[in-house]
Amino acid sequence: MRNVLRSVVYGVIVLVLLLLGLRILGPPDPTAHAPLQAAGSGDAVAAPRPPTAVGPDVLALRARTLLYPVEGIPPNTLRDSFAEGRAGHVHEAVDILAPRGTRVLAVDDGRVIKLFNSVRGGLTVYQFDSEQTYCYYYAHLDGYVPWLEEGALVRKGDVLGYVGTTGNAPKDTPHLHFSIFKLGPERRWWEGTPINPFGIWGSR
């Protein structure tokens, strides 16, 4: 009889301790660590990607209605690779894939400042806009049009060259490497502040 009473007492103590523990801790929060879900869907979805930052230079360039630099390729196919890493550097440009030999067009009025054959960019064109505020850079060209030379004035839509794979571009992936940078007061063709072209054509 004594053993039975002892077992009952122990059981009551354990039950009381369990109830006290639940009271202190409380029930688990049903929303803690829950994945984001689309309304009316049971599938987890990723948080939305923040939009590409649009600064005053992007807005100024949008106002110019820059021409898309590869003939026949729709701007809505452009992918934002501006911040992607490359071998030893950040891309700071966009790549526009197109068949080899597709015509590359001047995006704006201006002047050809430099024609350059570099290890990375291959055959390249550096074009200043008419106000010498921005430089447009076209790289991996398969060739130039015959009349192109340093100092030549160009109009928006003029053919500068042709899509290719010169420089360090993969030989089976012809594309135009295109970048824009804002010139400093020295107006040097090889330096400036990079501007993401995706903000002009791809994020509107």
Summarize the structure.
With 204 residues, the protein is an alpha+beta fold.
Write the layout of secondary structure elements.
Blueprint: H1 2-25, H2 56-63, E1 85-86, E2 89-90, E3 94-97, E4 103-105, E5 110-118, E6 122-129, E7 134-144, E8 153-154, E9 159-163, E10 175-182, E11 193-195, H3 198-201
Antiparallel strand pairs: 1-2, 3-10, 4-9, 5-6, 5-8, 6-7, 7-9, 7-10, 10-11
Give an overview of the whole structure.
The protein is of the alpha+beta class and 204 residues long. The protein has one domain: Glucose Permease (Domain IIA) (Distorted Sandwich). Helices cover 18% and strands 28% of the residues. Strands 3, 4, 5, 6, 7, 8, 9, 10 and 11 form a nine-stranded antiparallel β-sheet that branches. A hairpin with a 3-residue loop joins β5 and β6 (122-129).
